[in-house]
């Protein structure tokens, strides 16, 4: 994801500084060179990169290190602070009634993003509505309508209309009941002056509380000009980076944020309406520097846990921490994992898992693991409550029955049981942590090294 | 598009010319001494017999063998090899380095009215050129490849003072550009004309780059040449995809083959080909769902479509505004379903055009068309030679 490569190459360079108590100019030059290279490869604007690297160089050479810190930590701190300064805070989005307008280039993902944001607001307990004003692109109406059905949110559009301004006006009236209005607009680029005029008109009618610029993570140096023009015409209050599930780094968004003096609001990470995340600068930088994105992971975990719980009031994940770990718990855990999204995305956020380790896994490791999880689920469906509660007392006769019932091999059933046993043992190590705080658990795993964490996280065979 | 890059290339040419100017003035000042006088040489002139130079330059020396007994470092770059060999022996005594023009060679060049361009002369302009290329969205490794070509062409090169450095730079730039962008050229129109009908063309690319719009435009382009065209919608995934391509087909009066959303994309395209065969249609344009190259499932689906449909041509669609990542996805798509060429969309939104250079270089397949607007006829053939001429031409 964003700037992952910077993470790894920078980590490498910084590791070279380990053990040094003082850094000389050559060390700093090398770090700065790596940062420049990585940021440029991430599509960050050239001017911005040079400015950033100059200040890192300047500070690293001139600032007195805090007593007791190593040279490496000192550089790390400076890089971190400068990066935070560059990225900025995430756009403030109050959970209250408001109107948000989306703008951006053709194909940047506005329509999908509109439905995603609506979904996000509905999860926060607000009632959103999407108003589709793209009368130009064929199929835009149908796409928006279908996406909104998937997100289970209100939708307004006019398949026969040809005046976006009129549709915006009517849409706001028709969806007056909704608390959050999200106005989607047709794609346009900064050099199409008639279309820029048009969005200014829509802007006047809609009078949004917030205008968000939607940018494809892959956008290159052109992001600067596009951001400037949109800023000038409608005033950009925040940026959304889409298609971050690809290999593009999203550096264009940093440029846009810098140009519009705004911030990043959301990240789009997939094709379904749930694939949206709030931008978290600290987590983002932490991951960048190889410390893992704890905050974002715990948010996903909490959300997934909450959903699982909503379906089954009797089950409390914290019981795992207190009492025994049964197959029922393992099943819940697997369901929760599934809800968090594709396994590779989740793993990517676990400290120590991003970048290097992921690359070392065979390409199909994730698919295999996911297939296996599905198989385990089928097996568990064929087990009795008694067997689920006390897996350790399952006999071989029972195993045979379960295998037949689930249409799997006995071997697979045994694998499931031994997997459970392993997890039970791993979890025993975490007992006594008290409140079952997910984040602390993650940290503990990190200290235990990647392998330990792997065993603890579930059936990642 | 490309105007930004043009300005930057011009700047590079000027930079090098200025450097060479200063240098040649310095040479003149260095005066009437025929043999080189190291102590009075200006700073611009690196000393050939200083070991420092040996470490600074060896990477660019292709002909070097690494031993002090071979003081003539670049025989193949030297325009007058005949005059050199005899001097080589005489020289070997006083020079322990094997790279960089020797003091003697510089003196000889000076005596015959030439100067030699050395790595130091190019360092700053090349750095600026690299930044300029990256600023134009040329991918970093591709930019480095271009710089390497320029280095090879220019360093150690002697020129008559009556030649302008500008000409030398222009030549090197032209070679470097053509090397990366003029790849696998073929005449698209001719290939269509020669192919057995129906010709099946499948379009691939990531989400939102403009595959469907490009298909609509290309159907018009081919229709204008008198071909009959049928569209087949292999995007059975995205919401609104059927409606989008249906409107285009209706607007253009073309037949569309489509299935229900969620159907098998290969089957739709296959039906399109069958339809064309039984109705004497010349060309089938097959759309596919946008997919990110990181999705293994969707990429193997694409490979399957490629196997089942076995199209006559696969065109990769990407957008001109794409940055460094353009190389990654072009590579992956080319691997999943080998492409024949690229359509670059949204060229009207971009002033630099580096993506064209990166994609052509990394796939080894030509950029065939540019999408330059929202109307059906906003599509242009792409000619790399013309582009390079335009980039390097005078205002």
TrEMBL record, chain A:
Swiss-Prot/TrEMBL keywords: Cytoplasm, GTP-binding, Hydrolase, Nucleotide-binding, Ribonucleoprotein, RNA-binding, Signal recognition particle
InterPro entries xref list: AAA+_ATPase, P-loop_NTPase, Signal_recog_part_SRP54_M_sf, Signal_recog_particl_SRP54_hlx, Signal_recog_particle_SRP54_M, SRP/SRP_N, SRP54, SRP54_GTPase_dom
Pfam families, alphabetized: SRP54 (PF00448), SRP54_N (PF02881), SRP_SPB (PF02978)
GO CC, one annotated term: signal recognition particle
Enzyme Commission number: 3.6.5.4
Domain Signal recognition particle SRP54 helical bundle, first and last residues per copy: 2-87
Quaternary structure annotation from Swiss-Prot or TrEMBL: Part of the signal recognition particle protein translocation system, which is composed of SRP and FtsY. Archaeal SRP consists of a 7S RNA molecule of 300 nucleotides and two protein subunits: SRP54 and SRP19.
Comment text on domains: Composed of three domains: the N-terminal N domain, which is responsible for interactions with the ribosome, the central G domain, which binds GTP, and the C-terminal M domain, which binds the RNA and the signal sequence of the RNC.
PANTHER family attached to this UniProt entry: SIGNAL RECOGNITION PARTICLE 54K PROTEIN SRP54 (PTHR11564), SIGNAL RECOGNITION PARTICLE SUBUNIT SRP54 (PTHR11564:SF5)
Name listed for the protein in its UniProt record: Signal recognition particle 54 kDa protein
Organism whose genome encodes this protein: Natronocalculus amylovorans
From TrEMBL, chain B:
Molecular function via GO: GTP binding; GTPase activity; signal recognition particle binding
GO cellular component, one term: cytoplasm
Parts of the chain that traverse the membrane: none
Binding site for GTP: 205-212, 287-291, 345-348
Main location, first listed in the record: membrane
Record's bilayer topology term: Peripheral membrane protein
Reactions catalysed, as given in the entry: GTP + H2O = GDP + phosphate + H(+)
Ranges annotated as biased composition (Acidic residues): 71-81
Domain SRP54-type proteins GTP-binding: 366-379
KW GTP-binding (keyword) present: yes
Localization annotation: Cell membrane; Cytoplasm
Keywords: Cell membrane, Cytoplasm, GTP-binding, Hydrolase, Membrane, Nucleotide-binding, Receptor
Domain of life from the UniProt record: Archaea
Any Gene Ontology biological process: SRP-dependent cotranslational protein targeting to membrane
Enzyme Commission numbers on file: 3.6.5.4
Residue ranges of the region described as Disordered: 1-102
Function: Involved in targeting and insertion of nascent membrane proteins into the cytoplasmic membrane. Acts as a receptor for the complex formed by the signal recognition particle (SRP) and the ribosome-nascent chain (RNC).
Subunit details: Part of the signal recognition particle protein translocation system, which is composed of SRP and FtsY.
Family to which this protein belongs: Belongs to the GTP-binding SRP family. FtsY subfamily.
Name of this chain's protein: Signal recognition particle receptor FtsY
Organism annotation: Natronocalculus amylovorans
